[in-house]
Design a protein that fits this description.
The protein has 291 residues and is an alpha/beta fold. It has two domains: 78 residues; 191 residues, 3-Layer(aba) Sandwich (Rossmann fold). It is 39% helix and 18% strand. The protein contains nine helices and ten strands. Strand 1, helix 6 and strand 2 form a beta-alpha-beta unit. Helix 1 packs parallel to helix 3. The longest helix has 19 residues. It is globular, with a radius of gyration of 20 Å. It starts with 20 loop residues before the first helix and ends with a strand.
């Protein structure tokens, strides 16, 4: 999902006078600084167009007229910050999203993982967890799950809780089943879940080796050494300096010959660490740390 260019100014601004693009940018910078200093969430280096679009979504939802009005409410009402955090967090995901990636992972990465006695995997920016459960299923089918530990992290506590619950909409199971089959699934997808609680409850065995934890890619440090790091479709929302910072975090967190997986529109090109990796699969953005 690519970052879009600035959209037209919402019509609600017509009520507050002529639109001033420079003033709006100041307002947004002040809001993000206030959020960082008061709540500790740092969105100051996120791509401007994406942040602007998401802020206006919340402004309109709350019936407000300006960015400054949103800032005033956010700083004095924590529940509003929780709602804004859901807007600013990147939660677009699906089970076995991009099936060709999972095919490539089975073919190119799994044989490498078989050589390790113990496997550590970091799923950074896991959102509501669909891709974490997808990886757990893949590892089970390849006989690697029992010697694996998956660390699933996100900045958003609300979506992490949804990940832990493992309940997903029943009406998406047909789509997920098609993805699973296209990804090289080896069983009936329905074996992995039960229709319950108004949704599809996935087997608890899929999370017995998963650790769900809060982690902020913007401000937090490395917390372990990993054989695989997956961070798909998150970096596109960061500016160049923040992307470089996160690439440094991943490089420091990967063991030698560890695997880094990025999203389809993300790249190591022009990053400070481009020469430290080799491509395992270019189209699926799978790289191996070689120095």
């Amino acid at each position: 999902m690519a970052v879009q260019v600035d959209e037209p100014v919402p019509s609600v601004l017509e009520e507050t006078g002529p639109y001033d693009q420079d003033l709006e940018r100041i307002e947004i910078e002040l809001l993000l600084e206030g959020v960082y200093r008061h709540y500790g969430f740092d969105f100051r280096s996120y791509a401007y167009a994406s942040i602007r679009r998401r802020l206006w979504k919340r402004i309109e939802a709350e019936g407000l007229a300006t960015v400054s009005a949103l800032q005033a409410v956010i700083l004095h009402q924590p529940p509003m910050m929780e709602r804004l955090l859901l807007d600013l967090s990147i939660n677009v995901t699906a089970m076995f999203r991009d099936p060709t990636f999972y095919q490539a992972f089975r073919e190119r990465v799994v044989p490498l993982l078989r050589t390790y006695p113990y496997i550590r995997i970091w799923h950074a920016g896991c959102a509501t967890g669909e891709e974490v459960y997808s990886m757990a299923i893949l590892l089970q089918e390849e006989g690697l799950y029992d010697r694996s530990r998956i660390y699933a992290t996100d900045i958003n506590e609300v979506v992490l809780q949804k990940s832990k619950e493992g309940i997903f909409p029943l009406d998406r199971m047909q789509e997920y089943t098609e993805n699973y089959i296209a990804a090289g699934g080896k069983r009936a997808f329905s074996d992995y879940y039960t229709a319950k609680y108004g949704g599809a409850l996935f087997n608890p065995s899929l999370t017995k080796n998963v650790v769900f934890s809060l982690h902020n890619l913007v401000t937090d440090r490395s917390f372990a050494e990993f054989n695989v790091i997956l961070c798909r479709n998150v970096l596109i929302y960061f500016d160049k300096s923040l992307q470089a910072r996160v690439h440094g975090l991943f490089y420091d967190s990967l063991a030698t010959f560890g695997i880094l997986v990025l999203g389809s529109k993300e790249s190591l090109r022009f990053s400070p660490y481009e020469d430290h990796y080799e491509q395992i699969n270019g189209p699926e953005k799978i790289f191996r740390k070689v120095r």
